[in-house]
Write a structure and sequence with these properties.
Helix content is about 25%, strand content about 25%. It is α+β, with helices and mostly antiparallel strands. It has a five-stranded antiparallel sheet with strand order 6-7-12-10-11, with no helix packed on it. Strands 1-2-5-3 form a four-stranded mixed sheet, with no helix packed on it. Strands 13-19-18-17 form a four-stranded antiparallel sheet, with helices on one face. The longest helix has 19 residues.
């Protein structure tokens, strides 16, 4: 384990934003963590992860930790399911692809989501009717203060929509070093009811296999979302807002065509992409920063945009949507 100084983070974030880490260290095993904190007791740290859900607006005057803990371990197996422990540094999409190849069902709808396994529970990643909370049994957490590891059960993670305890009370207090998922060995009850997936599968929806769903999701995401290796982006920049049924009734009265999805507790989810598009931002470009023409949720860096330029555009969009619809759209991306 070597601590490097003054390292460019441009290659470590999918927006391709230039920023400098005062110190930088790559963590390859959880055993390195106690030693790192013993030797740097009073140092602040920043956890980089896969760099796919953040926007740098400044240099990082901390120790930047790149989590590269790898490994897949079969913990338990039955006729119908498996328990799989995965190192936090494994690439998420590569894991999904590996599970599909082995006919382990449960996360195929989460294909092509950028980032690493350890970051997935923090955001409670989700797509096409599935969230990681649906399959996560537990995770291993290294606490910065105690310098010890502990296990969090699914309930203890306090998952919500793109949310968890690790984004709130425990933000910056530790690192996820591994996750344990329970996946099905049977491909029955695949999640094919989400509208885009159902439309793509067509008449084959009822007989779809795990690789059919995986390929369908990959095809949809490839059409809609830019490849970060070609155009800098962090995927969906905004969350879909969840509003009260009373507010929804008011908005629908003025905009009868507004799409919606009923939630529990009389709440209603509104697609943020629709709100942004209806506010005139889809395909907008100013210099090297813009809104992706095929998906209004995605802000992009066409070349040398700065983090400040991207966040300025994001705030303009938020103000515009709130002015038109009276709905607040929150950022999904972490801004530093």
């Amino acid at each position: 384990m070597t601590i490097l100084e003054n390292i460019s983070l441009k290659q470590y974030n999918t927006f391709g934003i230039e920023a400098t880490a005062r110190y930088f260290v790559e963590i390859n095993s959880k055993e390195e963590l106690p030693k790192l904190f013993d030797e740097n007791k009073n140092s602040d740290v920043f956890i980089l992860g896969g760099g796919s859900n953040l926007l740098f607006t400044q240099d990082i005057d901390k120790i930047v930790l790149k989590i590269s803990i790898k490994g897949k371990e079969l913990i338990e197996e039955s006729d119908n399911s498996i328990l799989l422990k995965i190192g936090a540094g494994e690439n998420w999409h590569t894991l999904v692809e590996w599970c599909v190849q082995n006919n382990y069902a449960g996360i195929e709808n989460l294909a092509l989501i950028p980032g690493i396994v350890g970051a997935a529970p923090i955001q409670n990643i989700g797509a096409y009717g599935v969230e990681i909370k649906d399959v996560l049994v537990s995770l291993e957490w290294f606490d910065f203060e105690t310098k010890k590891s502990k296990i969090f059960s699914n309930d203890e993670c306090e998952f919500g929509y793109r949310d968890s305890i690790f984004k709130r009370e425990l933000k910056g207090c530790g690192i996820i070093s591994a996750v344990t998922l329970q996946l099905r060995k049977s491909t029955r009850a695949l999640h094919t009811s989400y509208s885009d997936v159902l439309l793509e599968l067509g008449a084959n929806a009822d007989t779809a296999k795990i690789y059919d769903v995986f390929n369908t999701v990959c095809a949809i995401r490839t059409r809609k979302l830019p490849n970060p290796s070609e155009i800098g982006n962090a995927g969906s920049f905004f969350k879909n807002p969840i509003i009260s049924s009373e507010q929804y009734a008011e908005v629908k009265n003025n905009f009868p065509e507004i799409p919606s999805y009923n939630q529990h507790n009389s709440k209603v989810k509104i697609p943020a992409a629709w709100l942004i598009e209806q506010s005139g931002w889809k395909g907008f470009r100013r210099g090297d920063v813009g809104v992706y023409p095929r998906q209004a949720l995605v802000l992009v860096n066409y070349g040398e945009a700065s983090g400040e330029e991207i966040i300025a555009l994001a705030r303009e969009i938020q103000t515009s949507v709130q002015s038109k619809f009276g709905i607040v759209i929150d950022m999904e991306v972490n801004v530093l």
